[in-house]
Write a structure and sequence with these properties.
This protein has 8 helices and 5 strands. The chain has 201 residues and is α+β, with helices and mostly antiparallel strands. Strand 2 and strand 3 form a beta hairpin. The protein binds glutathione (GSH). The site of glutathione (GSH) has 11 residues, from helix 4.
């Protein structure tokens, strides 16, 4: 498998998942502005959606969309416990969490990276994200991971999106449970390895 990624972008989530799963993979960095890979390939031709993450499978086909890719990775290493078995209620709850992260957190927070975003709109998005952060902190409760006692691919995704709070200057102080969560996930050996591989630490 080959993961097309951009340092610190949402592709960090499948990158963490691949390392947590212990699967063999290679990486290819993408310049998202130029739509060129580090080897000079035209990324828009590889993924017509033009965005990362994109996962090239061993049969040459391409899988996109972080939330789906995360589950594909987990299912390649069932013993890792990165996702409950397909068809179980626990799996539907994992999908529910992943969908929430994708639609309520990822896309709202991601849009704030656009320097052209007007200030008034930014404030509206900050307010919305604050409400979602409140929900997710309550859902986490005293659990170490978002699905409970077990680290899953949803944690790789949630950690990635919450870690954007630093570059986006979103103060997590009002959500101490989320601050502690980011620290907890960020100190996992495989997460540190991933952050180092992307040159983020
Ligand atoms: N729906 C996609 C969205 C992926 C996405 O937003 N990727 C961003 C980085 S976090 C990107 O590559 N943006 C560049 C672009 O859209 O041109 C997913 O969930 O995987």
């Amino acid at each position: 498998m080959k993961l097309y990624y951009s340092p610190g972008a949402c592709s960090l989530a499948p990158h963490i998942a691949l390392r947590e799963a212990g699967l063999p993979f290679t990486l290819e960095k993408v310049d998202l502005r130029a739509k060129k890979t580090e080897h000079g390939a035209d990324f828009a031709a590889i993924n017509p959606k033009g965005y990362v993450p994109a996962l090239e499978l061993d049969d040459g086909s391409l899988l996109t969309e972080a939330g789906v890719m995360l589950q594909y990775i987990a299912d390649q290493a069932p013993a890792s416990g990165l996702a409950p078995a397909f068809g179980t209620m626990a799996r539907y709850h994992l999908m529910e969490t992943i969908h929430f992260i994708a639609t309520e957190l990822h896309k709202s927070a991601g849009a704030l990276f656009n320097p052209a975003a007007p200030q008034e709109w930014r404030q509206v998005v900050h307010g919305l994200l604050g409400r979602r952060f409140g929900f997710i902190e309550g859902r986490l409760g005293d659990n170490p991971y978002i699905e409970g006692a077990q680290f899953t691919v949803a944690d790789a995704y949630l950690f990635t999106v919450l870690s954007w709070s630093r570059p986006l200057k979103i103060d997590l102080t009002p959500w101490p449970g989320l601050s502690a969560y980011v620290t907890r996930i960020g100190s996992r050996p495989k997460v540190i390895e991933t952050l180092q591989a992307e040159g983020l630490i």
